[in-house]
Amino acid sequence: MNKRYNAADIFICTILLLSCIITILPVWHVFSVSFSGPDAVYHTSLMLYPKELTLQAYKYVFSTPTLIRAFGITVIITVAGTLINLLFTISGAYALSKRDLPGLNMFMVFLVLVMTFHAGIVPGYLNIKNLGLLNSLWAMMLPGAVNAFYLILMRNFFMDLPKEIEESAKIDGCNELSLIVKIVIPLSTPVIATIGLFYGVGHWNEFFKGVFYMSDSSKWPLQVLLKTIVFDQNFSDLASADTTNIRIEPANIQSAAIVFATVPILLVYPFLQKYFVKGIVMGAVKG
Fold first, then answer.
1. Which residues cross the membrane (predicted)?
2. pLDDT digits (tens, 9 = 90+) for 54-108
3. How does DSSP classify residue 100?
């Protein structure tokens, strides 16, 4: 039977289509500019497809040791930071999933308070300074090692796991550590992958911590350097000698740098997409 579309359905579909266009169009424009020649960029305000196709902007970007270094720093922060996040989040969520945990209600109240109130930028900066973490990669990873909301999501997921499996494992001689590694984590792949993706994207896009805690430009993460490239018209100190004489519009370099900073994290999504909805829904069902 064919479904009849009423006025409300048509209106909703139209709004969603317009939203998709508004969202995708700027991204596509940046992508097109990054592959276009300087003359085409100079004379065109909106680029719907690459004109005067060229890779000069990407050649310029990949010849910049500063940008490559920032990319490496961001990769380290993303990988190591996500592992730290997952280590503490899994440990805390597993402990809080036990209903017989002493002080469980108090811990849950603390988590809600953390989600509601924040100390602020200045106390956070003073804390990092007093710990001696300024201009250290640890300053980008340790603050916010556990997100209270993600902890609660994972805790709810753990509470949905069959208790019989845990009891059988303990009868077979599993201790708590073996139980987590061999039973809980393999059964919790959807929620771990989803929350790991959230943590990873957060680290990859981290900007404010780099601005606040990294005064040494040689330790800037990619997003901080990207801000400098986008708002600074002088790129002569970034490129190698053999590319400084190439005519490139600043918009070419800015667009290529944005694509360079965006594509790696986008490539992660297809591998984790199958876990995404399942992990969020199952972790949000039970309180």
1. 7-28, 70-95, 107-126, 138-158, 179-201, 253-272
2. 888 888 888 878 888 888 999 999 999 999 999 999 998 988 888 888 888 888 8
3. T
Q: Which CATH topology does 65-214+269-285 take?
A: MetI-like fold (1.10.3720)
d(CA 204, CA 189): 22
Residue of 62, 60, 37 whose CA lies nearest to 236: 60
CA 223 – CA 258 distance, rounded (Å): 9
| CA–CA dist 66, 231 (Å, integer) | 16
Domain spans, the chain: 1-54, 65-214+269-285
Alpha-carbon distances of 162 from 6, 113, 179, rounded to whole Å: 44, 30, 13
The pTM is what?
0.80
Write the DSSP string, 209-232: HHHHH---GGG--HHHHHHHHHH-
Q: What whole-number distance in Å separates Cα of residue 45 and Cα of residue 128?
A: 44
Under 8 Å CB-to-CB from 61, ≥6 apart: which residues? 67, 253, 256, 257, 260
**CB atoms near residue 250 (< 10 Å):** 15
